[in-house]
Amino acid sequence: MAMVCLTDFEEYAKEHLPKATWDYYAAGADDCCTRDDNLLAYKRYVLRQVRHANISLHDTRTTVLGTEISFPVGIAPTAFHCLAWHEGEISTAKATEAVNTCYITSTYSTCSVEEIVEAAPNGYRWFQLYIYRNRKVSEQIVHRVEALGYKALVLTVDVPYTGKRRNDLRNQFRLPPHLKIKNFDGVFEENNGPEEYGIPANTLDPSISWKDIYWLQSLTHLPIVIKGILTKEDAELAVEHGVQGIIVSNHGGRQLDGGPATIDALAEIVDTVQGRIEVYLDGGVRTGSDVLKAIAVGAKCVFIGRPVVWGLAYKGEEGVREILQILNDEFCLSMALAGCRNVSEINRNLIQFSKL
């Protein structure tokens, strides 16, 4: 059967992955209301078709932090790609390099940052970072990725503690013995206590605050993007603290259940930032028209998470490339049908909010 949309890959992955692996990737926090609303919210936005004289030529290219990418969809940081495909993040990196878009590598990768760079030396990559109680752990990985040529740091700020993901608890989810978080190889070897998603429990620093942006800036010359912003107040603070970008994100609905869908939070953040820094979004993007709606509200680029592991589960690198190509094709078609010849013509005149 031909794979014609992202839902086809989702169904394949659900059927073929082990149940505990599927449950881990699919998990939302608590009742999964926020996870599900990330998707449903897009249906509340209606596209208005604005006619131009000539849409025979259209261009999906855009830039993020000054670097051109082929279309405004990148890869969000998702953990443990080797659970879905034996080459894991190496396959993801190769696919992203081939398509020429941005890959945000997760701290919780089952391939090391060095292996990823070696596999796709010309790829455009950012690195997603957590801050740990032992600051030296964070400091060392920052220096590693900067030396390897990663182009930005993406600091996740919405995980002072891990959300309650019920199926992971029921399944007593753990990485299988043959896999580990490669970026921390040897760092936590002496731990004999409980683990949480591959590292010792209570390793993340819940005291993280805005002053830690200054600490991070003192370590690196890389641009800093903050992931996990959902309010105008935090957006303003991000600007004031000198970061270069914001990812409007609720961690795929895996942290605080009952919060807003990211597309619903996007407008107030874009309006607050007023172009001073770039604003991106993740969560719930499944079609090219979803991409168009997010760009119309004001996102510079969107990032996809779960669909990437569905593509890996299907055919590894080839599956991820297919996922990205389908989204690119759908976005290009949606642009044309809506009357847009290039990304710069996409604006809020294209959308209206439906109460249905």
Quick recap:
By secondary structure, the protein is α/β, with parallel strands linked by helices. It is built from 13 helices and 14 strands.
Descriptive notes:
The protein has 356 residues and is α/β, with parallel strands linked by helices. It has 13 helices and 14 strands. The strands form 4 sheets. It has an 8-stranded parallel beta sheet. The chain has a two-stranded antiparallel ribbon with strand order 1-14. Strands 2-3 form a two-stranded antiparallel ribbon. Helix 4 runs parallel beside helix 13. It is globular, with a radius of gyration of 19 Å. It starts with 5 loop residues before the first helix and ends with a strand. The relative contact order is 0.21. Keywords: Oxidoreductase. InterPro entries: Aldolase_TIM (IPR013785), Alpha-hydoxy_acid_DH_FMN (IPR012133), FMN-dep_DH (IPR000262), FMN_HAD (IPR037396), FMN_hydac_DH_AS (IPR008259). Its cofactor is FMN. Pfam families: FMN_dh. It catalyses: 2-hydroxyoctanoate + O2 = 2-oxooctanoate + H2O2; a (2S)-2-hydroxycarboxylate + O2 = a 2-oxocarboxylate + H2O2.
Present the secondary structure layout.
Blueprint lengths: L5 H11 L2 H8 L6 H8 L4 E3 L14 E3 L2 E3 L3 E3 L12 H12 L2 E4 L7 H7 L4 E6 L5 H14 L4 E4 L9 H6 L23 E2 L2 E2 L10 H9 L4 E6 L2 H9 L4 E4 L13 H12 L4 E5 L5 H10 L3 E4 L1 H10 L1 H22 L12 E3 L3
Helix pairs in contact: 1-12, 4-5, 4-13, 9-10, 11-13, 12-13
Family: Belongs to the FMN-dependent alpha-hydroxy acid dehydrogenase family.
Keywords: Oxidoreductase
Organism: Huso huso
